[in-house]
Design brief:
This protein is mainly alpha-helical and 192 residues long. The protein has helices at 12-31, 33-49, 62-75, 77-90, 101-104, 109-123, 127-137, 143-150, 154-176, 186-189.
Length: 192
């Protein structure tokens, strides 16, 4: 599909049809709904312009596209931090089409406070750890795909994910109501 798009650019549309919706969901969660459409368009424009450099031995372009999108997100890093800090302050996730679990239990103020704490904790992570964590949790990329997306070895992905979870572990213990050695699961990170 990508290889054939050199002579037939229309063939690239198949890639868009296959991955645009998932890429949009991921970008909306990371950068907000208003920016996501622009970032998806930019990601596919960059991918189209760089299609000659794609490694056609890889059957799935998903990790490649997420890598391009993550690079674009780095340019919007300040906006992302501002959005997460706003969520931490207010507890209102304005970027999600689905209500967060804390909002589904409107009567429980402590659940809303946990959502705020989680957003603040994620916002406080170093950008390289946050990228790995959110590509794994929100985009549901496996560790090898995260590595390809970010252009880093899978061992580096594992260590960054471990460090991010370790930084979030005290909050996870609060959320579970126990002081046990608990790391966030993907489901726990899907607060928005």
């Amino acid at each position: 599909m990508i290889a054939g798009s050199g002579d037939l650019p229309e063939a690239f549309a198949v890639l868009f049809d296959r991955h645009a919706a998932a890429l949009h969901r991921y970008l909306a969660r990371r950068a907000g709904g208003l920016i996501a459409e622009d970032l998806v368009a930019q990601a596919f424009l960059v991918a189209f312009e760089q299609r000659a450099r794609y490694d056609v031995r890889r059957p799935d372009a998903r990790a490649w596209l997420y890598g391009i999108a993550t690079n674009l997100l780095r340019r919007h890093h300040r906006d992302e931090e501002r959005l997460l800090r706003a969520l931490a302050r207010t507890g209102v996730d304005t970027t999600s089409a689905h209500p967060c679990p804390a909002d589904q239990i409107a009567d429980r103020l402590d659940a809303n406070a946990m959502s705020q704490r989680l957003a603040a904790a994620i916002a406080g992570l170093p950008a390289v750890e946050r990228d790995v964590l959110l590509l794994h949790a929100w985009a549901e990329l496996d560790l090898e795909e995260v590595g390809r997306a970010l252009g880093i070895p899978s061992g580096t992905v594992r260590s960054r994910l471990h460090r991010a979870r370790k930084r979030l572990r005290p909050l996870a213990s609060l959320m579970s109501g126990a002081a046990n050695d608990h790391a966030f699961t993907k489901e726990e990170l899907r607060y928005g």
